[in-house]
Design a protein that fits this description.
single chain, Alpha-Beta Plaits, Glutaredoxin, 3 domains, 8-stranded mixed sheet, 5-stranded antiparallel sheet, globular, binds flavin-adenine dinucleotide
Length: 483
Amino acid sequence: MNNLGTDVIVVGAGPTGLMLANELALAGVDVVVLERLTGRTGLSKALNLQPRTAEMLELRGLLDGAEERSFATVQDGHFAMIPVDYHGWDTRFPFQLGIPQAEVEAFLEERLAAQGTKVLRGAEVIDFVQDKDSATVRYRTDSGETRLSAKYLVGCDGARSVVRKGLDGDFPGVDGEGFGVVADVLFDKAPDGAQKQWRTMRNIGEPTGATTFKGLIPLGEPGLYRFIYGDRASRPADMRPTVTIDEVRQALLESYGDSAIVSEIRWVSRFSDAARQAAHYRDGRVLLAGDAAHIHFPAGGQGLNLGVQDAMNLGWKLAATVRGQAGDELLDTYEAERHPVGAQVLHNVAAQLGLTPRSHESRALRDLFADLTALPEVNRYLSGMVSGLGIRYPTYGTSHPALGSRLSDQDIATDAGPLRPSTLFHTGGFVLLTTTSAHIDTARTWSPHLTTQLVTALPWPATEAVLYRPDGYACWVAPTPPR
Ligand SMILES: Cc1cc2nc3c(=O)[nH]c(=O)nc-3n(C[C@H](O)[C@H](O)[C@H](O)COP(=O)(O)OP(=O)(O)OC[C@H]3O[C@@H](n4cnc5c(N)ncnc54)[C@H](O)[C@@H]3O)c2cc1C
């Protein structure tokens, strides 16, 4: 701690803010999470954890909590509603975990509380100022306005981020022209042909016209479905999130006829296909992560996953900076690494929208694209993109197949028997896997927060050691390859 109120203020207790706060708390950093809402909404919103997010949760021993609350294991992903298979990737999790966003938030908040950090609810950030040493937010609660200062402030406050707007930076992109609606619908009699369990993306969603689409995802509870519909080329004059129950009933009728019997519509929300990305993720002592930094149409199920992965990238860097173990230029690598990843997601979402069968020609293009998707290399490329498994961070000066790539978490051989490497990451530090103890001292000079493991072999030829960052990406190898 310091003479400020705290080390880091995180604004927003969505999945991004909660993941980041967990990472900071794990590293012993004092963190305050300010959340406008007085309680969790319980809204399902996002429904999936992609393979790379599952791997990251596993690095912190958090995946069990997600699995306990999940309602489905989905064997594939999709690109423009065309299924893509994850099995071409070297991962223990070649599937999506079906889990409502509310449940992800619940277990992350519980884990945060177990680390001694509570979310300050009913605290709405109004604005902030920063100078060279600190950032100070002004927030309001029922008892009035309060100011709180910290070394760093991170805006995880979603698409309409007050923090982003306060930075006055550019948020370039497009407003889009279409819309979508999601509704959680309980049926007494589900539409004919609707799957009862969510096991695959096949036939879950489909184009219904030149620009319109529909989909039904079973949510685990008997008769409960996520109904999705929309139009990629036009939108209602009133784009507020509120949608009338009559509008949803009418859309159900048009999509599935009158054979379905609706019992209850539990939650409805409208969203747009606007796509924007903050030009910068850092300005001095203020950073952005998750939807505060990027918004896009929820095609492919990527937004929550992108935010959680932003948090994993930023968490250890911010912790090392706050603890004085790294200069604050380390924080610039957050933008350098995560901005291109966010840009690629916006790009692939635009490509998915581009595969809308608007005309005879674009229908042919979509059919051809679906055929290409069946080719293993194409499938691997697309599935790597939507799952996050394909992310590789640039490294400088040397080339080695491990550098910049993720830990795939297959068992490694040690004298004591096979070891699951992810277990070494639970404390949130760097991890050195090495065949010789000679490299341990070298790695210690870079980070005191280091776990070392002697192994009998590494999966790359002529490689004696691999150092992994806390977020599971290889950042150093020995012997160091030539430049
Ligand atoms: C209909 C729909 C379906 C989706 N489906 C998927 C999917 O299947 N898969 C997927 O990966 N993604 C999906 N997404 C995207 C996903 O929901 C978002 O990307 C995710 O919520 C982003 O998390 P976040 O924590 O960055 O922001 P949010 O979840 O928006 O959280 C921001 C938090 O900040 C709080 N806040 C805002 N302003 C303030 C303030 N001034 N002061 C204090 N607190 C504040 C908010 O109350 C909120 O709790 C979907 C989105 C929509 C709309």
